[in-house]
Structure prediction request, 604 residues.
Amino acid sequence: MFQSFDDLTDPSCGAPRAALLRSELARRGLDGFLVPRADAHQGEYVPPHDCRLQWLTGFTGSAGVAAVLGDTGAIFVDGRYTIQVREQVDLEVFEARHLINDPVSAWLAETLKPGQKLGIDAMLHTVREVRRLREVCEKAGAELVTLDDNPVDSVWEDRPEPPVGAVSLYPVELAGKPSNEKIAEIQSALEDKGADACVLTQPDSIAWLFNIRGSDVEHTPLPLSFATLPAKGKPSLYIDGRKLSNSVRDALLDLAELAEPADFRAGLNAFGEAGSKVMIDPALAGIGIADAITDAGGTLIEAQDPVLLPKALKNATELKGAREAHLRDAAAYVNFLCWFDEEAPKGALDEIGVAEKLEEFRRATGVLKDISFDTISGAGPNGAICHYRVSRSSNLKIPVGKPYLIDSGGQYEDGTTDITRTLAVGEMTAEMKKHYTLVLKGHIAVSTARFPQGTTGAQLDPLARIDLWKAGLDFDHGTGHGVGAYLSVHEGPQRIAKTGTVPLKPGMILSNEPGYYPAGEYGIRLENLEIVTEARDVAGGERPMLGFETITLVPMDLRLIDVSLLTTAERDWLNRYHARVRSEVGPLVRAKERIWLEKATEAV
Prediction:
């Protein structure tokens, strides 16, 4: 199994580990310390070596930060984890707060006292974040102290070793463009910005730029590394040499100078000593990187990572791979749904068993490299936990009479998939059908949207919510995130969310996943992946429009739809979508599953 269901956390560890950390802080003359869920790359997936927040608090979510100050502490998580944090963390030690609505800065403003020293690891907090923290500390009369090492590491006795996953070359037949061309394009962009060089901290940006993939973190084929790219000349790639075979090393040496991560700071200093103008992304680069350049005499140009947007704009080869991966994944998923419909009503299935079975169907394709994230297998009340992770202690039977939510994806060499379906098990109530249909209406509204160039995800986000809003309902997560090409299942800079300020452009892949989660009852989410495309001209229209091409091809559960709540246009969309699923996926499955598919995609 690519997924583990072991219990990874114990809330009772919070008190003794917080005490150990406080002792270490006192030894260093510090009054407090921040522990983010982050590594030096600011990535979504953090290797065990860097899971300091989990070690300290027990919290396993993908976003959060703990503050330890004197005899008080707090942990901050976003809306996806408000339930999870209360189950995993000792709230007597760490008060739970909302990362967005009640941020760390507000808590520090309330808690810091004049003369206190608050420590941070300089590589784990971005330039932009540190500016806010310094402002808060100054107003409180406190001092922010940036550290070159981490106090948590000093008291974490059984800390895992750094990962040394093997690096592989990603063939141009799948990448669609050779690395040297990508490097030249980014160098041209640097010259346009007046930069002498840029620093790349995001492993997915580095993997895309050099056409490599790795295995340092779970579920995402990333080689953890740093890179510097001069406007002219060879880039430098700072990567543990143990990850490179001779053939991979030889191929990379044609593109870049290779060095160990321990040499990274010296490379930054060299730019500073040369008086270089160095581009960094203040939202992604640790303050330690910025300080290494400026302390040595360099100048910073703050701008978005120049690789993010080119990586997000998939070329024709990458889009072809994505479509093929999704079609393959859809056939596996239909096989799974046919099996689920037979077994779930018997009442013997549980969350772990279903997740294992879905992975088994994906593995049967023969080309699955990994799952793209831990499958969210949520029965009953667990389905209401947006980013629930099933463990052996939380595992529930799939109840008859409630919807079951499963959010999952696969990593194939030609594409990354991500799909959520909410499935009926037994008879559904009128209220359940109403909630499902309101979510479906929002999903359809996004899928069918036509919008002019320059439209951002924030402008589209209300489309997914308006019918829920009319019913006095909402969901506390974004409507959609970007998706990589055999890279991260959560890719920036594009997103459909209240904070999605990046204009959507053709070639971007995004998820479309509105939901609704009545706490303690069940969860509903419907997710397809969409490619931003140039839409057909609208009759009488004056401006060229963009739209979406849906590439996820799996039925919606007709048993959960209240057809009376759908407009004629929404019914037509559903019937067209299901006809396409039948046509494209039907030939890829066996006769038994094809019969099931015919019924599951009947016109309404």
Notes: The chain has three domains: 11-155, 168-304, 313-600. Residues 421 and 556 are 7 Å apart (CA to CA).
